[in-house]
Amino acid sequence: MTGPPASGPLVAWYGDDFTGAAAVMEVLEFSGFPSVLFLGLPEPALRARFADRRCIGIAGDARTRPPEWMDQNLPPVVAALRETGAPVIHYKVCSTFDSAPDIGSIGRAAELGIGDWAPLVVAAPRIGRWQVFGTLFARHPGGIARLDRHPTMAVHPVTPMTEADVARHLARQTALPVGLVSILDLQAGRAAETLARVRGAGARIVAFDLLDDASLRETGALIWAEAQVRQLFVLGSQGIEDTLIAAWVAAGHQLPVSRPAPPSGPIAVVSGSCSPDTARQIAVAEAQGFAAIPIDATRTPDARAWAQACAAAEAAALAALARGQSVIVHSARGPDDPAIAAARAAREAAGQSPRDGAETLGRGLGALLGRLAARAGLARTAIAGGDTSGFAIAERGIAALTAEAEIVPAVPLLHAHFADPARPPAEIAVKGGQMGPENLFALVRDGPAGAAACGVKDHGERRSATQGRTS
How many other C-beta atoms are found inside a 10 Å radius of the C-beta of residue 41? Predict the structure, then answer.
């Protein structure tokens, strides 16, 4: 197969949540393809500031939206992505396939964007997601579980994964026929033959198993070959980009030198994540010198009370930063934190919807983070939580993001670019609830090398050369 051309657009993508959209940019940028992520459809002047970028992304929040919202809002986005001329048009979904018929429907998104057919690549082995015989597995702190038995995803409060077979899960959301290229097809060298057969049998979406480097290369080669014939709409996680990079490396593409994040001084983190992974990361950060400061999310329904809660958290954070500590302002510490039920009860009593509550929380945390950065003179900040990140970034007036350095897979160090071009970029890291090792916040603060120098073991995943950049 041929590798990527030396110039011109390559991939254009839409992320159905913010942190997922940033993860795609990370894979492409650190594999040698300049990329940019816009916060919504960019105006021409903003687009012109990044005219040299070969890969163009748009961050969205379709994961939290009903199909009716998708019908109105996704067609203009898909049209804009197609207008870039990129051969691969990617609708990016979570690697845990977060979706349901009435919220974040991947099936409805497929119906709105699909051409003749669409590959579906949900797995991403680099971050602990695998698909075998159409069944999705994910790593968790206790091991590896089928997704419908995963301790977090099986009981997700909005989109619980009750079916690990991706075709069966997707069939609840769309009538588009789904086929499969299995791991045995990929290992036996008959993937192209199987793809032709299942498409001939009527499949409009074709899921690909992913287990190892070889299956990454084979899948990427098939997707890239199809994209050379006609612009190809694809569905999946950042595993899509991992497969393309693996295939391009096999075809002779040279990966650039690693760009590890340098150390920073003290940092401020805000977290709206309820994930057990984030809870462990907060606990480890406390042991590594961070000040963990709770913020009372029960007060979000009342504007004055919420402003007071933010002011109290801000004062505590500024005091800790003045002592030289990094800080984490958090609304919860894991799914069993009583603060979650209390906040839900307060929201329901006030007639506030879950999405409105999440937006109030996220925007409040974003504004708080901006004030901490300005008043404490912080060079670097971070946000935890997929939905929280999107709202918090929007609140800070950020218009675009670029990936500048590597921390761990799926959590790069970003430069935030503001709508006002006179404002200099700001360093920020964002993480989804389930992303990153236990020592993540120290890695964000110190960079991989700085953390190692301080005796902090880097537990981040590593990618092989066939999977893209080593982080």
Answer: 14
